[in-house]
Amino acid sequence: xxxxxxxxxxxxxxxxxxxxxxxxxxxxxxxxxxxxxxxxxxxxxxxxxxxxxxxxxxxxxxxxxxxxxxxxxxxxxxxxxxxxxxxxxxxxxxxxxxxxxxxxxxxxxxxxxxxxxxxxxxxxxxxxxxxxxxxxxxxxxxxxxxxxxxxxxxxxxxxxxxxxxxxx
Length: 168
Fold this sequence. Notes:
By secondary structure, the chain is an alpha/beta fold. 51% of the residues lie in helices and 16% in strands. It has helices at 14-25, 32-36, 49-60, 76-81, 92-107, 119-144, 160-167, and strands spanning 3-8, 29-31, 37-38, 45-46, 65-69, 84-88, 151-154.
C-alpha cells in the first residue's frame, strides 16, 4: 500500500489514523482541508476550484501518499488512484464525544488546529456530524461502491490493527 485515501465524518479519526499510518508506513500524508484552503497567518484563503483540483492532482501524481478528509464530491481522481480507500464509519455518539474533546483540547492549547477553534466552528462540527449521519454517509457509500474490494469500512478502532498489518 503506497496510496491510501481515508474518508469519514468530522470526529471519525481520519487525521489520527493518517498520522499514525504515515509514521508506521513512512508515507507522506495530506489533509484535504489544506488542499481547499491556503493557510495564511492572518486568515485562511479558499483556493479556486481550478487551484484546488491542480493541487490535488499534484499530490495524486506523486509515488506515495495518504490523503484524508471528509470531502468526496471532487476527489474522484484520488479514489481512482488509491491502492486502498478507508471509510471511517465510527458511531455517531463517539464522533460527538471526539468533537467535544477536540474543542476543549484546542481551546486549552493542548491540541494543534488548522483553524481557530471558535464556538461558531464548534457548532458547525455538530451540523456536519449530523449531515454525515443523515445524508453524506449514503452518498459516500454509493460513490465508493464502484471501487469494490479496495474499499475497507472501519467501524471501530479494533479494525484499524488490520490496516497496519496490511501495510507491513
